[in-house]
Specification:
heterodimer, A: alpha/beta, 5-stranded parallel β-sheet, 41% helix, B: alpha/beta, 9-stranded mixed β-sheet, 39% helix
């Protein structure tokens, strides 16, 4: 084990090289619906059990299934209304289970990135070769079903090994959503030396963290999103930033939660200097225009701790 | 020692669900449902009448709302008992004031202990659902089948014998089930169960002994879930129900298909003097829309069924 993940160096928020988003936007805003499949009776991983109750955990399973049967369609209609293309964090087995959902996302030109195969399969205890196999298989599934290569990664159920991001970069990925250390994209050190970055994804704005972990009232969640945006929009006038709202249709798309989220979405998309975009577009833009300057600045400032290979 | 390679195999990966219990289907694709009077919303209020034994075993898990302190937990025992002595009569009055129909799901052991309460439920003509034996007798994965069969048979027999009425609906304590629960319910004449909360409308559910209907009784909207588990105030519960009502009516009108608002209320929670106004506020709002059809679950299932042919 390491005391530092070795993925990035200390790089203070102030006095960084300026980012320029398309249209001179202050905030690159993206919405990341998680489209997940949880298995009723998954293979057992000795390091983590999939369900708190003995199988069948009707409540846990049905809670997630609600998103697929009811929620995604609702959320899609809402995002359509405000011109937001989703960046889907996808349990790739869902391409086989529920191709209708994939087809609706493709019609909307949404982005698909990898969230593993099932959200009930964890990488804990895997050999490097086993983890490489599941990472590559998930990316191949996205390419097969969407005809576009997978660019981004959010580890299934946020389970990682020390090699996870190395393996994902080697398989052709360019960005990760697994790190929560910044409000701007940052370079991530991978052993291959490839250009690989973190795109801010936010656990604080994540509906599951808000509703399940922090047990927040729906209307207050709407206010939190607006407050988060207001501050980033103000700061983005000096140096542009990223704001992400990660969602789960099985949480946010319940009838009692839609209105508050809609108000927040309407508020954000009602601002002019916002680039409403996807994770891939942010990553590609940053790597093309800002990655080298960021790496040079980190080296020049000599503030680095950690991340050195 | 890495995981067995079997962990990278996915036996149920394929079209539809990863089990045979029900078919994969999105709410938005269903045939439209029409409620009486062409109302967009069916309102189903269910009163959960529960008995929490003082000598709670909590095996294999404790019931939601159960005993907390070391034995004897007089505090939680009597707080729950309050609902059956006092709170339920406040809820009856609120329902009557707004002309709202409600079903009652009752633990059989409570019916035995409080025959007066059961008589009042019957006199008031509430549809009676079986809520299992008591809150400390969960149905759970791995439960011995003959033991569970005995619980199902005994619970239904107590309610049917005492009321000389058919009891067609079932709500498991804590909404937990074993893999055998649905089949045992079918074999004992149950026509619909309310434990699966993965949808906003009823859907058919398969068992080796025949079909029954899953009628989802929302957990996310329960007073117990919002007020006790999430720690929101009673008026925040009311806000969430109001938002839910308004959203479902709008969705029903936009999609030309009826929707269901299913409210499970606990007299030990909303029946407190300071909380009852939240229920009254909710009932005033829903009935004030003039767009809700208030009905018992058997009638709702019957109307839903009529729309399926």
């Amino acid at each position: 084990m390491r005391s530092d993940p070795g993925l990035y160096e200390y790089w203070p928020y102030e006095n960084r090289p300026k980012i320029a988003w398309p249209g001179d936007a202050r905030v690159a805003f993206w919405v990341a619906p998680n489209i997940e499949f949880y298995e009723l009776d998954p293979a057992v991983n000795p390091h983590r059990s999939a369900w708190p109750k003995p199988v069948p955990d009707v409540h846990g399973y049905a809670t997630r299934d609600y998103g697929n049967r009811v929620g995604h369609m609702r959320l899609m209609q809402l995002l359509d209304k405000y011109g937001v293309r989703g960046s889907i964090s996808l349990s790739t087995a869902l391409c086989d289970h529920h191709p209708e959902i994939i087809a609706m996302c493709r019609e909307r030109d949404w982005e698909f990135f990898s969230h593993g195969i099932y959200n009930t399969r964890y990488v804990y205890g895997m050999s490097e070769q086993q983890e490489r196999t599941v990472i590559e298989e998930a990316m191949a599934t996205i390419l097969k079903h969407t005809e576009k290569p997978c660019a981004g990664y959010l580890a299934p159920a946020l389970t990682h090994t020390e090699q996870t991001l190395d393996l994902f970069a080697e398989a052709g990925g360019i960005y990760t959503c697994d790190l929560f250390h910044d409000d701007q994209p940052t370079p991530v050190t991978v052993r291959s030396g490839k250009k690989f970055i973190s795109v801010p994804y936010s656990l604080e704005m994540n509906d599951t963290i808000v509703y399940v972990v922090n047990k927040i009232e729906p209307r207050r969640y709407g206010e939190m999103i607006k407050a988060n945006f207001d501050r980033l929009y103000a700061e983005g006038a000096d140096n542009p930033v990223v704001m992400c709202v990660p969602l789960h249709a099985y949480q946010v798309a319940h009838p009692h939660r839609m209105k508050a989220f809609e108000e927040a979405l309407e508020y954000i998309t009602g601002h002019s200097e916002v680039w409403v975009t996807t994770g891939r577009e942010i990553a590609e833009h940053y790597i093309e225009h800002h990655y080298n300057a960021a790496v040079a600045d980190i080296a020049a400032r000599g503030t680095g701790q950690g991340g050195a290979a | 020692m890495s995981l067995d390679d079997d962990y990278l195999r996915y036996a149920r990966r394929g079209y539809g669900m990863d089990h045979d219990l029900y078919d994969w289907s999105m709410l938005a694709d269903r045939s439209p449902v029409t409620w009486p009077g062409n109302k967009p919303l069916a309102l189903w209020v269910n009163i959960a009448l529960q008995y929490f034994p003082l000598d709670q075993r909590g095996q294999p898990f404790a019931p939601p709302g159960g005993m907390v302190t070391a034995y004897p937990d007089l505090r939680h025992y009597t707080l729950r008992d309050y609902g059956n002595r006092v709170g339920v009569f406040r809820i009856f009055q609120a329902l009557d004031r707004f002309g709202v129909t409600a079903s009652v799901a009752m633990n059989a052991r409570l019916a035995e202990r409080a025959p007066y309460l059961l008589r009042r439920v019957v006199e008031r003509d509430h549809e009676l659902l079986c809520h299992g034996w008591d809150m400390d007798t969960p149905h759970f994965g791995g439960q011995d089948e003959s033991a569970e069969r005995d619980v199902v048979a005994r619970s239904l027999a107590v309610l049917r014998d005492a009321t000389e009425r058919p009891v067609l609906g079932w709500l498991s304590p804590g909404k937990s089930q074993s893999a055998n629960t649905p089949q045992l319910l079918v074999e004992h004449g149950v026509e619909f169960m309310c434990d699966w909360i993965n949808d906003d409308l009823p859907f058919p559910f398969r068992t080796p002994s025949g079909e029954l209907i899953a009628l989802p009784l929302s957990t996310e909207l329960e007073d117990r879930f919002i007020i006790l588990q999430n720690g929101h105030s009673e008026m925040e519960w009311a806000e969430q129900i109001v938002d839910s009502c308004d959203f479902l009516i709008a969705e029903a009108e936009a999609s030309n298909s009826g929707r269901l608002l299913a409210l499970n209320v606990h007299p030990w929670m909303l029946g407190q003097p300071h909380r009852i106004r939240a229920l009254e506020h909710v009932l005033a709002h829903i009935t004030g829309t003039q767009k809700a059809w208030s009905a018992g679950p058997a009638e709702i299932v019957a109307h839903w069924r009529a729309a399926q042919s």
